[in-house]
Amino acid sequence: MSPSPTLLQRCALGLWFLGLGVLGLLRWWMRYARDAHAESDPVMRIWLWGSVALVVLGAVWAIRAVATRMREHGS
């Protein structure tokens, strides 16, 4: 029987997406702070919503991995 993966291994993809999303939000904020009219730029809107989607997806995957780990150790 192989050992079960560690919590970090289970959360790796979720944390990766979470980090990419945060970096994308930071990039969007830097552009927005430099030029407030960039908000109406379609590319910046796609960047913003893509970053938000990555943050949400990463958070959901990381939380599911933690919940699965807790369920396995609770039983």
List the helices and strands and how they pair.
Elements: H1 7-34, H2 42-74
Helix pairs in contact: 1-2
List keywords for this structure.
75 residues; mainly alpha; 2 helices; 0% strand
Please tell me the total number of domains. Answer: 1
Average pLDDT level: 88
Rough shape?
rod-shaped
Distance between the termini: 18 Å
Structural class: mainly alpha
CA radius of gyration is: 17 Å
Low-confidence segments: none
According to DSSP, the number of beta strands is: 0
Largest β sheet strand count, sense and barrel closure: none
Number of helices: 2
Strand content: under 5%
Helix-strand string? HH
Percent of residues in helices: over 70%
What can you see in these coordinates?
This protein is an all-alpha fold and 75 residues long. The protein has one domain (8-74). The protein is 81% helix and 0% strand. It is built from 2 helices and no strands. It has helices at residues 7-34, 42-74. Helix 1 (7-34) packs antiparallel against helix 2. The longest helix is centred in the last third of the chain and has 33 residues, at 42-74. The radius of gyration is 17 Å and the shape is rod-shaped. The protein starts with 6 loop residues before the first helix and ends with a helix.
Quick recap:
With 75 residues, the chain is mainly alpha-helical. The protein is 81% helix and 0% strand.
